[in-house]
Write a structure and sequence with these properties.
- The chain contains six helices and eight strands.
- It is an alpha/beta fold.
- The strands form two sheets. The chain has a six-stranded mixed β-sheet with strand order 1-5-4-7-3-8, with helices on both faces. The chain has a two-stranded antiparallel ribbon with strand order 2-6.
- β4 and β5 form a beta hairpin.
- α5 (159-176) packs across α6 (205-216).
Amino acid sequence: MEQSKGRAGGRIGRRSLIIGGVAAAVGTGAVLARDPLSRMWWQVPGVEKPRVAGAVDYRGARWIAASSANWRRADRPDDFSVDMVIIHVTQGSFDSAVKVFQDPGHGAASHYIVRDDGHITQMIRELDVAYHAGNREYNERSVGIEHAGFVDRPEDFTDAMYEASARLTAGICARYGIPVDREHIIGHVEVPGTDHTDPGPHWDWDRYLTLVRQAATAPSPNTSEAAT
């Protein structure tokens, strides 16, 4: 899940501007609009965007913070549009996934982990960029969901896991206007440049997308619990 070092072509994101260049950029109004610069105030050394400790983006999730070395502070979707959910499998237990995501030397973490009993833990806020996809552009535009288990053990993908994960994904899609289809809900294996194979051949995509669509039309909303 190591974040790629480069980003192919395209626009220059606000986060690509180093703080040392802000003063120069302010004087070049033809290049940068005032609004993007106004959203960079919290990047100035000693200033941080206000956050509520322990706040979660999904109702019912438990908060356990990942190491700050495994994600990047951002202000999504204001600075980067979120248009994708990426499905992962941990290749290990739930506890081991939490442990490595808290390890600053690991270099990667996902926003959420779903356990076999349907329990959901959030470790990174959705507005921040998690290092989970192994591709910088995909990290910036996606929310990553890990599922505790192994790709070669279909029994790890329980009914409770599928249903809880589907409700989580439906809530994410509703928040950001993400279409519920296989172009926008993808596996880690489908990320360009990755060497990962998860979620593997035993992940039932047809079942999962059906559950996501059902959750999206369910009467009980999966609304955000987050507070910036």
